[in-house]
């Protein structure tokens, strides 16, 4: 009965356009009231969910990403990559994906990556012959790499739920992120194989050197973050704070594109983004707790175990299908809190590494960012390019297919994710 009430209230809230966090809150409260548990545990659950030291990394990474975005690092990264591959056919598609990988190592957020790159790369791509729909679809999908390549807010959330090393998760996401980027490049080259695209002028060695010097400060941020974590210099949370300070230093004193009077607005924007995430995290944790105490989580885990028949291949297929469908309607952080308690025990029982499972979930969530109706990256890209969502649906399909192929490879060959964490142990 509790499950029916939660699902009914949640579905109604989503149908009338309520935010996902609010929908989870109201459905959880409804279930608590009707089950007789009462509301006394709500504040305790909120506090337990958002007071974790590890989650302090989220506002710092958001702040660092906003700082680097305002500092114009995206322009310098685009110029650097374009100087090497801009002259080949489809070069700007390669630039788009490569810079998305670079910026992913700064922002940790998919929508932030799309917002930082879209305003520059979409007009450039349309100028050389791409349609707005194709350019927007590629940018939106490439933006999903922002939550796979570290630092990743999604990995931080998964780490806090599954109680696994966030540093290992960060390293595990690098190769799958690059694999997904390669799949997107191949898909783009296939989509535009018959198109007439203008090739940019080939850059000289001198131009490439100057582009590298301009971009090196942005390229150093992931080196500082991951090098500091694995060098034992600071924790992931401290690394996020260091990234924020480094971003301020670069923006104010190196590039000098950041003004002191802009800092307040950056802080406010970062606070709003953090508040939205924490609101969702708190409500998702509350919903997860209600599902747990009512026995729904364990019942679903048992169902998954029985349905898969102890077959790891079938279990992983169930995970992917479930998360891909959920990604069409629910944001990534909510997915983590709802489904990790269901799938993680089964994965451990079947001998599947929890780090590899975290990567599989995050890659699924990255694809969910471009699957309507809630594909947030699609809306950001459409807002930048000035087209409607219906104009991007068809162009995004090849990139979703390419991303899904990468997902299946990562899922069924977990050594791809585990290679770097095991190598650096």
Q: How would you describe this protein?
A:
The protein is mostly helical. The chain is 77% helix and 0% strand. It contains 21 helices and no strands. Helix 6 runs parallel beside helix 12 and helix 15 packs across helix 17. The longest helix has 31 residues. The radius of gyration is 21 Å and the shape is globular. The mean pLDDT is 83.
Task: Give the tags.
425 residues; mainly alpha
Shape: globular
What is the averaged pLDDT score?
A: 83
Task: Work out the number of β strands.
Answer: 0
Radius of gyration: 21 Å
Strand content: under 5%
Decide which structural class fits the backbone.
mainly alpha
- How many distinct helices? 21
Q: H/E series, N to C? A: HHHHHHHHHHHHHHHHHHHHH
Gap between N and C termini, in Å?
47 Å
Q: Unreliable stretches, pLDDT < 50, 5 or more residues?
A: none
Oligomer: single chain
Helix content percent band: over 70%
Query: Biggest sheet, in brief?
Result: none
What's the short story on this structure?
With 425 residues, this protein is mainly alpha-helical.
Question: How does the SSE layout of this entry go?
Answer:
Elements: H1 2-15, H2 20-35, H3 42-50, H4 57-70, H5 73-85, H6 91-107, H7 110-127, H8 132-143, H9 153-162, H10 166-172, H11 174-191, H12 205-230, H13 236-254, H14 263-293, H15 296-308, H16 312-326, H17 332-349, H18 354-368, H19 376-385, H20 390-412, H21 415-423
Helix pairs in contact: 1-2, 2-14, 3-14, 4-13, 4-14, 5-6, 5-12, 6-7, 6-8, 6-11, 6-12, 7-8, 7-19, 8-19, 8-20, 9-17, 9-18, 10-21, 11-20, 12-13, 14-17, 15-16, 15-17, 16-17, 16-18, 17-18, 18-20
